């Protein structure tokens, strides 16, 4: 043989020799606690994983697996078609938030120009308020404030 043939064959033979023990050891699996491994582990128990089925049983199992996979793919396609059809008939979401352009109130000046109004900015959400309750709270707060002021003036005098 020539040098280049030896250069090609030597790594190929070495690879075969190195993988032979791994192939032979491939028939043993190890149970390591609640997991399984192809390598021994501390406290692990070897398990024989030889396939004792005959060729007909293996063919039947493979056929059943392929049928289940095909059925799963078919069901996924059907689901996607149904979801796409449901998008057209679903209710439309109406966004109650105002856009950024309508949030700022403007007033028109005599010359036609517009300027921003001063004051509170409209919130991005709706909040219901009871005007009577708000007025009552303001009255109570004012009463407390005047009581504190009276107490301070009586204590300093």
TrEMBL record:
Coiled coil: none
Residues covered by region (Disordered): 41-157
Key word Protease present: no
Keywords: Signal
KW Signal (keyword) present: yes
Highest rank taxon of the organism: Bacteria
Compositionally biased region (Basic and acidic residues): 48-66, 73-82, 140-150
Signal peptide: 1-24
Protein name: DUF4124 domain-containing protein
Species this chain originates from: Variovorax defluvii
